[in-house]
């Protein structure tokens, strides 16, 4: 039987002057760019979690503008000792704008760098799929709040 894991997280899409605010995630497969955001603490509202996570990872305070949607990912992967993990991630994605603070890198966290990246350079970056999902939600603003995938 696989070990079930549920992770609920909140992220913010901050776009300003043709640039997007990203954080570089340090994962088991190396460093990849991601949306600023992360896990929601028990009892924490996703709205508040997005604001907290952006500040932790980038140094900026933000104001949430709009809920863009919720992305759901589900996959299995191998773990040590021959057991599989059955992972389900729910990612709440908002748009936001910077209201204060200064750009800085997170220390002792899951990211090691924060930066404003020109939107036309995002496709060149090593990035997690969430970046493309968040940009699609931002671009299309689907009424149902999810990116349509082909079956």
From TrEMBL:
Superkingdom of the organism of origin: Bacteria
UniProt keyword Hydrolase present: yes
Keywords of this entry: Hydrolase
Location of the Nudix hydrolase domain: 5-139
Cofactor(s) essential for the protein: Mg(2+)
Family: Belongs to the Nudix hydrolase family.
Name of this chain's protein: NUDIX domain-containing protein
Species of origin: Streptomyces cuspidosporus
């Amino acid at each position: 039987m696989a070990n079930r894991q549920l992770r609920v997280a909140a992220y913010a899409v901050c776009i300003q002057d043709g640039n997007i605010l990203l954080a570089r995630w340090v994962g088991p497969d190396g460093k990849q760019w991601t949306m600023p955001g992360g896990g929601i603490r028990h009892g924490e509202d996703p709205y508040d979690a997005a604001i907290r996570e952006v500040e932790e990872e980038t140094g900026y305070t933000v104001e949430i503008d709009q809920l863009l949607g919720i992305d759901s990912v589900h996959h299995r992967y191998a773990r040590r000792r021959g057991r599989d993990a059955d992972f389900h991630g729910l990612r709440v994605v908002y748009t936001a704008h910077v209201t204060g603070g200064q750009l800085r890198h997170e220390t002792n966290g899951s990211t090691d760098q924060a930066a404003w990246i020109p939107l036309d350079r995002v496709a060149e970056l090593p990035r997690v799929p969430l970046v493309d999902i968040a940009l699609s939600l931002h671009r299309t603003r689907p009424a149902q709040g999810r990116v349509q995938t082909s079956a």
